[in-house]
Design brief:
Elements (H helix, E strand, L loop, with lengths): L9 H12 L11 H12 L3 H14 L4 E7 L5 E6 L8 H4 L27 H7 L2 E7 L5 E7 L5 E5 L4 E7 L6 H5 L4 H18 L4 E6 L2 E6 L5 H9 L1 H5 L1 E8 L2 E8 L3 E2 L6 E5 L2 E3 L2 H11 L11 E7 L4 E2 L10 E2 L2 H16 L16 H6 L10 H7 L10 H11 L22 E2 L13 E6 L3 E6 L2 E6 H14 L9 E11 L2 H16 L3 E4 L4 E8 L7 H14 L4 H15 L9 H12 L14 E5 H7 L4
Parallel strand pairs: 1-7, 12-14
Antiparallel strand pairs: 1-2, 2-6, 3-4, 3-6, 4-5, 7-8, 9-10, 10-14, 11-17, 12-13, 15-16, 18-19, 19-20, 20-24, 21-23, 22-23
Helix pairs in contact: 2-5, 3-7, 7-8, 10-11, 15-18, 15-19, 16-17, 17-18
Bound molecules: adenosine-5'-diphosphate (ADP) and magnesium ion.
Length: 631
Amino acid sequence: MEVVGKADSPCRIFLAYDHHNFPAYMSIRVLDPRVAQQVAAGEVVDRPASVVKELVENSLDAGATRVEVELGDGGTSHILVRDDGAGMSPEDAPLSVLRHATSKIENISDLEAVTTLGFRGEALASVASVSAFSLTTSTGEGAGTKVAVEGGEDARVSPASHPKGTTILVDRLFYNVPARRAFLKGARAERAAIVEVLTHLGVAHPSVSFRLVEKGRDYLSLPHAGDLLERLAQVHGVARARAMRKVEYESGAFEIHGYAALPSVTEGSRSSQTISVNGRWVRAENLTRGIDDAYRATLPSGRYPPVALRVEVDPRRVDVNVHPTKQVVRFSEERAARAAVAAAVREAIEWRPPPPAATPRPTERPYTQESFPAYRSPAPDFGRVAERRPDYSPPTRDLDEVRERLAEASKPLSEAVRQEPPQEPPGASVPEELPERGALPRLEELRVIGQLAAGYILVEEPGSLWIVDQHVAHERAILDRLTDAEEGALPTTQSLLVPEVVELSPGEATDAAEYLEELAVYGFEAEPFGPDCMRITGVISTLAGRDVAGAFREALAAAKGTGPGRRREDHILATIACHSAVKLGDKLSKEEMEELIKSWLTSRLPATCPHGRSICFRLGVNEVARKLDRH
Ligand code: ADP
Ligand code: MG
């Protein structure tokens, strides 16, 4: 046999193995149906959580209002799912465990408009082939039925009493498929996966009550919720639900409703992001990317705000039959789907100035004139960026909206507030709470007092003193302008009066030559200038007069160090914002500070530093009085 590839490549190892050890021939045989079923079962169920998902989805399809799950050893020894749904008749019950037995579709054309979660008729047959399985069910009329199946053998059917609904017991999952069983993790990890699945299903179906118990302990308890926000309050606690903004969006083929948290509230994994498509909870990578697009440049890496979205789309434009677990869906227009999710979430979490026509003229707001004397900032020219965008009006016009949003952020959550938030399930990630909009100074009432240690701006608001990190606040404001640009459009570039020569290491110089074209997209007009030097003649307007050399070097490193695409763009823009911003140690005039504070507080997401750092904190006058023993 000829060996291809390098001497040490896996290819060669494989061929060598193939050559010497592969058994000569196995004759082809048609698998015993039971074995075939056990093999196929692996596609539908691979761990207790996927069993729970299938069984609970059946309960939901049966119209249950209450679903209870009981576990033994995190589902590895047993799983019991009980519902109060429609149940099955004595005739139907034995059929339900047969492969391709379903009450939900009849013809392939039905798939186009399927509204149930199941339709493949595979789940019960699969689960019953790899466990000691039994179901007891009743329609509430006449006798109930029990159907027991041991490892895929023939079903034993007997009469049994049961209230209207169905109870399914899955004992010793994978007892007859040791290879699968070996892949199960410990009880804790399997239980955590079940909590996650049930939480997603709970968010996708707020009106159904869900409960998960093991050894008498509640791991999840979601009583019937009046609406999605109430369910989110049950899941995430009232405080975090309060930081969620309503999503209401319609465009083209897509209608999207739900809630998205402000970027100040994040968790360490995506598990708090639930998306359903036409009522089905899905894991659609493309839609998740849409969420990421909406939050870009507002989150520290690895943090995810809770989001719950219901996407409605013409069923003919989405294929749910891509994978046996029906969790992967494919859209006829994948890009449009992602863009719709991004736009829907962005609209909810951003504060956008309304069109100028609907807004009173700035002269009608005396406080803007009083608090902020007209001042032209020499370097970061936000005005120019603003002018380029027709839907963007200068920040000073929209303070009423800011005020409204701030007030809204601190409103009590009408319904949910009365409900105690449930205990965090063990092992759930601890959320990181950053100040949200409610915890920001109110622009219209503040007065800049001065600067502390050339790094912190002191701002007085009636009753309190705010201490603002000047670098982080400025960085936020600039990044906002950079990333708020329409797709591909960035603020104008500005020629430097005196070109800046940047010295580079030989390695950096080689990279610079390679990435020059890409960096030009971000406004860097640069050319080689002698060995290992670059002459920069123009930059994005925010960067003019600031740390041009530092920004160029870091943007180069960012371009080189990250793969192409959005993340890379984010990285480069963050670098530019960071180097455009005033630094700790920069002495600022009162006007400069006022301008900075104003552009920060009128940015879309003033409470979030791009790196997740705090931007400001408040010192109440009461606290000051206390410190001075004035009780
Ligand atoms: P599918 O959900 O794709 O139809 P399943 O194997 O999951 O296939 O279920 C087979 C059938 O058994 C369903 O179509 C339904 O008629 C019935 N069934 C399963 N679980 C329940 C339940 N909890 N309540 C009522 N009927 C059920
Ligand atoms: Mg099903």
